[in-house]
Design goal:
- The complex is a heterodimer.
- Chain A is an alpha/beta fold.
- Chain A folds into two domains: about 200 residues, Rossmann fold (3-Layer(aba) Sandwich); about 70 residues.
- Chain A contains ten helices and 14 strands.
- Chain A starts with a strand and ends in a 12-residue tail after the last helix.
- Chain B is mainly alpha-helical.
- Chain B is globular, with a radius of gyration of 28 Å.
- A three-stranded antiparallel sheet of chain B has the order 1-3-2.
- The chains are: A alpha/beta, B mainly alpha.
Chain lengths: ~300, ~600
């Protein structure tokens, strides 16, 4: 079962397009990282999956066949928006009661236990908590709903490195214990490297790369070789990005598999998730076409 | 309010004390930050002034004709009665409205001035720039305060011109408590005072909406103090001396409040205390679960019960509901205590024999003096209850969630946005209905003696202010204003503009109802006999009589037809008005829910 399916999903705000023709199939049980620079359309995509925004064109369904925002979707999808909105004038205890009363399924014992474990005082007003504590509160409230899909919009942006670890630890525990699928957006790729199962790279409102992280890593290779052969080599592969120096050229290429032969005189390197994502994002900024005539030096 | 922006401020680096940021630049910042207020205030006041000028030209021309026509001729009498009914109704309504203008300007301009920064956290930005926070506050207070004073002064000049014919014609004194406050320096001084109260309240409470509510309350108290205690002391000195004395003490109070505000700005403690986080060791990356849980994928979804959603609505609006109950509770207590006194006075007066004795005259003086003034003042306050309650309860209901972003939390819960929105609107709406129904009933009892003794002034249960202060109509207007407020909040997504528009919409609807809609109520009767219409049979033909409300007249051939509503039809008329208001409220609430349902994030 696919936990999120989109077909030609597009969203326009006024006359500008925030998301264009996005088609995705995200399998269940994954931690999916949605990465891209600021303004890439990450929040727009997440708002539509959460049922907060209505698509301008295309469809989005969650948990198999359930239209986003329908009662059944709301029941099983939890969303923590950017900056973790909570009612700042309510106490933590009241926020728990509030969420319990707004949902069919809510595990108060889990919420209280988790917050006690984190040392967040239940009597304190939410607005008086630190930024990290507010994020943890919002996450705990979302997880106590026992969702099947958890959507987190930039959850790490306001957190320090230790708080990031705490936060991700909570998410990981929920994934193992309850089988929650997670969609998480971030522009900090390095933080997510070791957690992600599935990667969605978004830039300029368009999908750049989608797939299981392991597959993407296996398919992509960084080739280094003499600059004057670069164009010939580029013909042989699907090139994501080409960088040329005076003597050497670096090509990020997509191959059919790890066994594909490396041209003689060229070196191949294993790549990291961060390198992969960054080359897709750079390529989107400076579009590269292998058919273009070589730049004269 | 526009978001806060500041131009780059390249400060010349020098040794020693930094040069303070020049005032001119800060004035620009103030202008940019409060541009919306600086523009919308003169626009609203300008529209009102245009209306006053248009209406004033008519009133002045009527009055000029009246002066030319030979006195006591039949035509003169007709003109006089026309002037005294139609023109004076409008003049008097606008005179009462003028009493509200200072506090409205003050509350809307002053309360958000500092409280918005505190509420949204932008004070962290504003107070850490290269100038002291006191200077910033002083510039803002001075610039916006001066601006409101200028606008208010200009408006009072326009109003004074509009109102001039009524003073001789209605035998009013310039020292009349309603007239005195709308002229000269006093009107602007009251505006400045209201503004400063609001700014001070905003700094003290750190929240816009409570600050606005407190401003209105404090202003009302101050007005009562001025009317009842202070003015009698210096009104003997004549119009202009009294004006300057009142303007003087108001100015002193404003300066005091401004100083207090700046003092609060200087001494406001730093941000909230924060506790440290407990760090947990990072667990190993878990293996992906082989069989992800499928709890109830195909089970039908049971909607979240209404009972629980009502609890949520109660918890979210507890502060507002409790404070409304407290205010109305105090009002009810006042109505009971004061009502008992007035009833006692009235009973003593009616039981007194012979009526011409000194004792009876003394009782009559108390009743027509103090008791009548108290009754009348309370009548005006009761008339304001629907718009104040409706705007303060309705406009922030959804707008606040949209403003602060908490709607992203609320609307993604299992209950869904439609049901939780409906629960909130219904809970607060019914709460207001019940409370205002109780207050309306109490007021009806409280005002009974005044009404029984008011036949001389032509006041009946159908007089607009009396009609709207009791029965079904008071709660119905409150609910309708609440629904307008909620709708505007959902439409504009900002609390302050929604409140302002709600008040405007209420005023327009109220005037339209009185001038036009009422003619179509199926309770009115038509007759060609003015005696029937008036039932009392005395006085010129179209002065509102003691026993019926005359809606209009027209001629067919030589017969004059009158459309009127007899006082015996008070309850049918109440039911008609309450019904259409109820229908309007339900429609608006439905529209609000519909907007919430289809609003994109």
């Amino acid at each position: 079962m696919n936990v999120i399916e989109t077909d030609g999903l597009s969203k326009a705000y006024g006359r500008s397009w925030a998301l264009i023709d996005c088609t995705l199939r995200i399998p269940e049980g994954c931690l999916t990282a949605l990465v891209g620079p600021n303004g890439a359309g990450k929040s727009t995509l997440m708002n539509m999956v959460a049922g907060l925004a209505v698509p301008t064109a295309g469809d989005v369904t969650v948990l198999g066949d359930c239209p986003a925002g329908a009662p059944r979707a709301l029941n099983s999808v939890a969303f923590v928006a950017q900056d973790a909105p909570v009612y700042k004038n309510l106490s933590v205890r009241d926020m728990i009661h509030l969420t319990r009363n707004l949902n069919n399924r809510f595990d108060s014992a889990y919420a209280t236990g988790r917050l006690n474990e984190l040392g967040i005082p239940l009597g304190r007003k939410s607005g008086k908590l630190s930024g990290g504590q507010q994020s943890q509160l919002a996450l705990t409230l979302a997880l106590a709903r026992k969702p099947r899909l958890l959507i987190l919009d930039e959850p790490l942006a306001a957190l320090d490195p230790l708080a990031r670890q705490d936060f991700m630890a909570t998410v990981m525990t929920a994934m193992t214990d309850d089988g929650v699928s997670v969609l998480l957006s971030s522009h900090a790729v390095a933080d997510l490297e070791r957690y992600t199962d599935y990667l969605v790279v978004l830039s300029g409102g368009r999908l750049q790369a989608v797939g299981e992280t392991d597959d993407l890593i296996a398919e992509h290779r960084l080739l280094t070789g003499p600059a004057d052969e670069a164009d010939r080599i580029a013909e042989l592969f699907t090139v994501v990005e080409m960088r040329r120096a005076a003597a050497q050229a670096h090509l990020m290429v997509r191959t059919s598999g790890p066994d594909e032969a490396v041209p003689p005189g060229w070196e191949t390197h294993a790549i990291t998730v961060e390198e992969l994502v960054l080359s897709y994002l750079r390529a989107q900024r400076n579009p590269f076409s292998p058919r273009r005539s070589p730049v004269t030096r | 309010m526009t978001p806060l922006t500041l131009p780059a401020q390249p400060e010349t680096e020098r040794a020693g004390d930094p040069r303070p940021v020049p005032w001119t630049r800060m004035a620009w910042v103030t202008w940019r930050q409060h541009r919306a207020a600086f523009i919308s205030l003169p626009v609203v006041i300008g529209v009102l002034s245009v209306f006053l000028v248009v209406a004033g030209v008519r009133v002045h021309s009527h009055y000029a004709t009246l002066l030319i026509v030979p006195a006591h001729s039949a035509y003169w009498q007709e003109l006089t009665s026309e002037f005294n009914s139609e023109d004076w109704t409008m003049g008097f309504t606008l005179l009462l409205f003028m009493q509200l203008v200072p506090v409205l300007i003050g509350a809307f301009a002053g309360a958000p001035l500092l409280a918005r920064d505190l509420e949204t956290g932008t004070f962290r930005y504003a107070w850490t720039q290269g100038l002291s926070r006191e200077r910033w506050a002083i510039v803002k207070l001075a610039a916006l305060g001066l601006f409101t004073v200028v606008v208010a002064a200009a408006f009072s000049v326009v109003f004074a011109w509009f109102f001039r014919p009524f003073i001789p014609q209605e035998h009013l004194s310039l020292l009349n408590s309603n007239v005195f406050g709308t002229r000269g320096v006093v009107f602007a001084a009251w505006t400045l005072t209201a503004f400063m109260i609001a700014a001070f309240g905003g700094m003290l409470l750190r929240q816009v909406i409570p600050a606005m509510a407190v401003t209105i309350g404090a202003y009302a108290l101050l007005q009562l103090l001025a009317w009842g205690v202070l003015r009698p002391g210096y009104q003997g000195a004549g119009f202009w001396p009294a004006q300057f004395i009142e303007g003087g003490w108001l100015l002193a109070l404003s300066v005091l409040l401004a100083t207090g505000t700046v003092w609060l700005v200087r001494h406001r403690a730093a941000l909230s205390q924060e506790t440290s986080m407990t760090v947990h060791p990072l667990p190993a990356r878990p293996a992906r679960p082989a069989h992800p849980g499928q709890p109830d994928a195909d089970a039908p979804i049971r909607p979240v019960p209404w009972r629980r959603l009502l609890w949520v609505a109660w918890r979210q609006h507890r502060a507002a509901l409790v404070s409304v109950t407290a205010v109305l509770g105090v009002a009810a207590l006042y109505l009971v205590l004061m009502g008992l006194k007035i009833h006692r006075d009235f009973n003593a007066l009616t039981a007194c024999h012979p009526a011409t004795s000194d004792v009876c005259n003394g009782l009559a003086n108390v009743f027509t003096g103090v008791d009548w003034r108290v009754s009348n003042g309370t009548l005006i306050l009761t008339n304001l209850a629907p718009v104040l309650l409706g705007a303060f309860a309705g406009a922030p209901l959804l707008a606040r969630d949209l403003e602060t972003g908490t709607f992203r939390y609320l609307w993604t819960q299992g209950a869904g946005r439609v049901r939780s929105t409906v629960a909130r609107l219904v809970l607060v709406g019914i709460f207001l209905l019940v409370l205002t129904a109780i207050v309306g009933e109490l007021f009806g009892w409280f005002f009974g003696p005044a009404l029984a003794n008011a036949s001389g002034s032509g006041m009946t249960v159908l007089t607009e202010s009396v009609f709207h202060s009791r029965g079904f109509v008071l709660p119905a207007w409150t609910l309708a204003t609440f629904a307008i407020g909620a709708f505007c909040g959902m439409l504009f997504r900002h609390t302050i503009p929604a409140m302002a528009v709600t008040m405007g919409a209420y005023a327009v609807l109220y005037v339209l109802t009185w001038l036009y809609f009422m003619r179509w109520y199926p309770v009115s009767l038509v007759t060609s006999n003015p005696q029937v219409a008036q039932a009392s049979g005395s006085g010129p033909a179209n002065i509102p009589s003691t026993n019926s409300l005359i809606l209009g007249s027209w001629k067919t051939g030589s017969t004059v037809w009158w459309r009127y509503i007899p006082v015996t039809r008070f309850w049918p008329m109440q039911i008609v008005e309450a019904s259409w208001l109820l229908v309007l409220s339900v429609l608006l609430i439905a529209a609000t829910v519909w907007l919430a349902r289809r609003r994109a994030a």
